[in-house]
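Example record for the data management plan.
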Amino acid sequence: MARTLYTIVYTCLLPVMLARLWWRGRLNPGYRLRWRERFGFLPHRPAANGLWVHAVSVGETLAAAPWIKEFQQRHPSVPIIVTTTTPTGSEQVKRLFGDRVYHMFLPYDVPAFWRRFFRTLNPGLLVVMETELWPNLLHACEQRQLPVILANARLSEKSKQGYERFAALTQPMLQQLTMVAAQNATDGQRFVDLGLPADRLEVIGSVKFDVQVDPEHLQYGEQLRQQWGERRPVLALASSHPGEDEQLLDMYPQLAAQCPGLLLMLIPRHPERFDAVANAVYARNLKLQRRSKGAASELTQVYVADSMGEMLTLLAAADLVVMGGSLIEHGGHNPIEPAALGKATVCGPHYTNFASIVATLKQAGALQVLDSDDQQWSQRLADLLNQPQQRASMGQAGKQTVDDNRGAVRRLVEIVGQLLHR
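Corresponding structural encoding:
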């Protein structure tokens, strides 16, 4: 009954969803393309019994990439299908895999669309990255006896409370899952509290700790530093959202007064914000260089990284990294990448999406958490920029912590291989 009501409401909202796609397409034309896929009309018909991976957007795609690549090495004959929801996620799939996987957008969660979807696609296993649960999708998988793994799963206390309000939908979904491979025991227990059978929980750690830093990232990062001026301090804001770039830009005069020659590097999370961030720099009369427009010079004050897929290279050129999504109530973003690069890292007070990872890095001395006092942020950032030994100590602790927590990719590949060939 609950799922029927959900389906009626969801179907009635489809015109709103389509209008939202069209509206977002003003800034990112990708939202207006390939819309038929969202109704279950698929561009590919891979062989049956393949591996289907759903990764909502950029972060989930990047998290899935290492274990998908390892799975391909172990099982080269198994076709792999990757679905995403956003065009930025789609771009990441194409960049990371090219034609080595089949890619399409995930259909809307309507039973008729899933029937059409499964008439074309006949996978042997579905792996959903992190926490992306759709009632009709899971029901369709159960009808077809398709195993489903929720991988790299995380669930904050706030999200758990949200799911509890819709228990009539949540409990059946969790009971339809074949396995939840959780990042940590605390998050895993939250799934069990919501209705997941305890014997379907596996705690394997976060696959994001298995990030691989290619020497080329470090080499290109060093080349950027040479362009900018090797001795000048570089502060990076990684994966920023609206309101965060502006906070750092407003702090810039005070920071630059204490850190002569400071270069502020802004790395927006979504490409549709590139122009808005650049305009925010212009509005403050700061000297801007956009990555797409050429190299920065020693006169550049703000560098806007208006490119995709270069996060590790860009962070390799920084002295100090502020994690975006944490200065506003968004839930934060993954701080493992700067830690793996040996970069001192700070985040704001809003990091619920990565609470366990933040706690691990903080305990190791690799990460500092800033509170809501803007004045204190400015002073603490300036202090770190002026203390290279402390930054080096934090960076070393970060690399060691990442190395100590590797192994989730191997465990997940083994689980997926066993279930797929069962």
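Summary line stored alongside the record: The first helix runs from residue 2 to 12.
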